[in-house]
Amino acid sequence: MKFVTYLRVSTERQGQSGLGLEAQRAAVAAHVLGRGQVVAEFVEVESGKRADRPELVRALAEAKRAGAVLLIAKLDRLARNVAFIANLLESGVEVTAADMPEANRFVLHIMAAVAEQEGRAISERTKAALAAAKARGVKLGWSIPERASEQRQAARKGAAVNRARALDHAENVLPVIEQIRSGGASLRQIAAELNTRGIKTARGGKWHATTVRNILTVENGAEARAA
């Protein structure tokens, strides 16, 4: 049996230090032992709340290409979101978690619901704590006038990060688009095939002819600038 492993940590610090990654690698290695071999590994440094995961897109595409199982250490490494995991399970790629290899699709959906509820509870507790602090007169975040300059810098940085993420996603998904287009498919047909394969747009949505055209336009523009 062939496996494509997907490892995820939530912060750059964890990604650089290996904190969390080694434990995940150990878990998936123990699962693979005696069952088969790992043919590819993909590592993502991204919050579990985000649906735009370029490395996950690559992992799913490689698993489908190789006829492999997408293997993760724990279900919550994918996301604390039922709809997101449901879409993955319907992508045509077999997905399994090392901590519960016997779990079927029904069990995975239940675990996803529990993980989502856990994430919601954490968010609600954080909001309640911030509201209580604000009620006591504590100034929070950007409400401090002295941090206005930081706010502007953060906004510029956020915009740059979003542009970089969009370009990364375009680079990751372009080979799949080119492969489909090589058979003479139209933009609408390419979009339909991407949706069938469970590949999401950069914002985690469905593909349309216009979004496919945007990817091709971005890549053509990048090539022209490089030339």
From TrEMBL:
InterPro entries: DNA_bind_recomb_sf, DNA_bind_recombinase_dom, Recombinase_CS, Resolv_N, Resolvase-like_N_sf, SSR_resolvase. The active site is at S10 (o-(5'-phospho-dna)-serine intermediate). It comes from Meridianimarinicoccus aquatilis. Residues 2-137 form the Resolvase/invertase-type recombinase catalytic domain. GO terms for molecular function: DNA binding; DNA strand exchange activity. Pfam families: Recombinase, Resolvase. Keywords: DNA integration, DNA recombination, DNA-binding. GO terms for biological process: DNA integration. SMART domains: Resolvase (SM00857). The keyword DNA-binding applies. This is Recombinase family protein.
